[in-house]
Write a structure and sequence with these properties.
The protein is mainly α. It is built from 13 helices and no strands.
């Protein structure tokens, strides 16, 4: 059964993709689309004047963005897929019942049948991650990048609070006021849907950490993880409203605020890659361990995100 948040996200993602695809068909050319597409796979070449910090920000925001990519794996637990049905999930605030969430992960006892099923579940997860999440994330990055390159002259400077409406200005010059409206609607839905999901990300991680590490907390909340989760979510909402007011009052550039947060998003990716390698090799029976190729991919990811983070910070500090 879909939760209220899932239904809202599906609607918003559908609206966003529909508008972006329509604008791309109207304003971009096959040549520009091919150039943008090739840019994602041009390895080892960075055009002169391009900021490493911006590239690191793109990597930090890719997919669900930094820590969010780790939380996505909780989807399988929350849906009860595989062994997820054995550990519980954080329920909905409206229709959800009190649920006991296991503070420990579980894997099936080793047997030929369980090994076969485990590998089958892993194939489903890989197909889901590559066929839906990875492909969808790539399209989600490609469409706005290609649209911006199609309408904004190369080398144009932008910053401050005009960033949100920057593309709209140039699209309005091409197709009129309707373009301005469509871009603002898309921008709003992108920000709203993203933040709707990102509000959940840190709280879900904090909840999981507290729940699995503290028996006292589990006793205080009588093994009902929902109470802890929604109390933390309330505090986060108050903080986010306060942070926005502070940013607005002190006129902090939202673009650089966003870039800094995106760059920091590379740090959780480094940590998660390292922890995943350790956990898979330390605790899983050999029958359930991933192949060496997955470990190599994780190791390469570890080095990639670490490199981008270090280089971006060095650039910001003026060390390179």
């Amino acid at each position: 059964m879909l939760s209220g948040l899932e239904i809202a996200e599906w609607v918003m993602v559908g609206v966003i993709f529909a508008i972006l695809i329509a604008l791309t068909i109207m304003l971009s050319t096959p040549q520009q689309a091919a150039q943008t597409f090739a840019g994602f796979f041009t390895i080892g070449y960075i055009p002169e004047g391009v900021s490493i910090a911006l590239i690191a920000a793109l990597a930090g925001f890719a997919g669900c963005g930094g820590m969010g990519n780790g939380v996505v794996t909780s989807y399988y637990r929350d849906k009860g897929l595989g062994m997820g049905a054995k550990v519980g999930a954080i329920p909905s605030i409206i229709r959800g019942r009190a649920t006991t969430v296991s503070p420990w992960g579980r894997y099936p006892r080793v047997s030929p049948e369980n090994t076969r099923r485990f590998k089958l579940w892993r194939k489903y997860a890989i197909a889901d991650i590559i066929g839906i999440f990875l492909l969808g994330s790539f399209i989600g990055m490609f469409l706005p990048c290609n649209l911006a390159l199609s309408v904004i002259p190369i080398g144009t400077k932008m910053g401050g609070w005009d960033v949100a409406a920057f593309i709209g200005k140039y699209i309005m010059e091409r197709i009129g006021y309707i373009g301005w409206v469509l871009v603002l609607i898309t921008g709003f839905w992108v920000l709203f849907s993203t933040q709707l999901g990102q509000c959940d990300v840190p709280i879900r991680i904090i909840t999981d950490i507290l729940w699995t590490s503290s028996e006292r907390i589990r006793k205080v909340f009588k093994n009902d993880v929902k109470k802890l989760y929604y109390i933390l979510l309330t505090f986060e909402a108050i903080w986010m409203i306060s942070a926005f007011i502070i940013v607005y009052i002190y006129r902090i550039s939202p673009l650089w605020w966003l870039i800094l947060l995106a760059i920091i998003g590379n740090v959780p990716m480094v940590a998660m890659a390292g922890v995943t390698i350790y956990v898979n090799n330390k605790f899983l029976p050999k029958e359930y361990k991933p192949s060496i190729w997955w470990l190599i991919a994780l190791a390469l990811g570890f080095m990639f995100w670490m490199f981008l983070f270090v280089e971006a910070i060095a650039e910001i500090l003026g060390l390179v």
